[in-house]
Specification:
Elements lengths: L2 H24 L4 H22 L37
Length: about 90
């Protein structure tokens, strides 16, 4: 999964979390179950960010709003060059 797609999925996960928080205040009788949903949403967001929010060049973790990788100094939105690609004749 590339970084642009990972950012879009991350945005969707944040929207789901906001929905759960809204439900928490709208339905006080179900706060226990909604709290489980909030916890699971946060857990999924954390795991997703750790696994997929990486620099396409060096593979180190980058922040959600970083434009330049702190480790290699390259632009994180640029597509990486493919190494060992065979030339077409």
């Amino acid at each position: 999964m590339n970084l642009k797609k990972a950012k879009k999925v991350s945005d969707v996960l944040y929207m789901v979390l906001i929905g759960f928080v809204g439900l928490f205040f709208l339905f006080p009788q179900y706060r226990g179950w909604i709290s489980v949903g909030v916890f699971l949403s946060l857990l999924i967001q954390f795991i997703f960010s750790f696994k997929f929010m990486r620099c396409p060049h060096c593979g180190k973790n980058v922040g959600r709003y970083d434009e330049v990788c702190k480790h290699c100094g390259r632009n994180v939105d640029a597509e990486p060059k493919i190494r060992n690609q065979k030339k077409k004749v």
